[in-house]
Specification:
Shape: elongated
Helix content: 40-55%
Order of helices and strands: EHEHEHEHEHHHHHHH
Number of strands: 5
Structural class: alpha/beta
Number of helices: 11
Strand content: 5-15%
Largest sheet: 5 strands, parallel
């Protein structure tokens, strides 16, 4: 099996240390290179155009999925393992259409991590540890349980999920605080939620906001 460079694009020290240990144990790599930002990642890919990148998408500084896909298109011989805590169904659906990306959730067992690393270096796409039927179930739940939100309510829910206050949303929407409070009450009623946390969880599941937007 040909050895390749592994680029660990993860901002968590403990994750980088753990992955470094597993990769060395498997004796898979020529080099293991840690990076913490896009600015560091792109020059490395120019030098290592067939590298394998293990990326925590939700913690890295990508502002939207298109940035990730554009980098992959620039370096088509790279292989990617997206290694994150949680990914939205909409994002997973887009990623699964691209044969350059494998998906591995951070609650995976060591055996699954080893299999993903081995499969990827062999040029194979590792099956997501979130089973396909589970992905489909999540999508169906989102669709079947989705109340009818107006376009305005979706925009306000997105701002709520981004941590904006009622006053900030009112300023952005050029509206009164009273109007925003009314919309917020209607959104919570339609969703059957009681607080911002529950509403934010729904926004993630429904694809109204991407986790990367939330983390910024």
């Amino acid at each position: 099996m040909q050895k390749k460079d592994y680029i660990l694009a993860d901002n968590q020290d403990i994750t980088r240390i753990g992955l470094h240990s597993v990769i060395q144990e498997l004796n898979l790599c020529k080099r293991i290179i840690p990076v913490c930002s896009k600015r560091e990642l792109t020059p490395l890919l120019k030098e290592n155009q067939d590298a394998i990148i293990v990326l925590d998408y939700t913690l890295f500084d990508f502002s939207r999925p298109e940035e990730l896909f554009n980098i992959q298109e620039r370096f088509p011989h790279t292989r990617w393992i997206l290694f994150s805590e949680e990914l939205t169904p909409g994002f997973i659906d887009r990623v699964c259409q691209n044969r350059a990306f494998s998906i591995l959730l951070k609650n995976a067992s060591k055996q699954e991590i080893c299999e993903a690393l081995t499969d990827t270096i062999s040029g194979n796409l590792y099956p997501c540890t979130l089973p396909e039927n589970q992905i489909q179930t999540v999508k169906e739940e989102v669709i079947s349980d989705r109340p009818i939100l107006t376009a305005t309510e979706k925009e306000i829910l997105k701002l709520i999920a981004q941590g904006k206050s009622v006053k900030e949303i009112a300023a952005i929407r050029i509206s009164s605080a009273h109007t925003i409070i009314t919309h917020k009450k209607n959104i919570f009623r339609k969703l059957g939620v009681n607080n911002v946390y529950e509403a934010t969880r729904y926004a993630f599941r429904a694809g109204i906001i991407d986790i990367a937007e939330y983390c910024i």
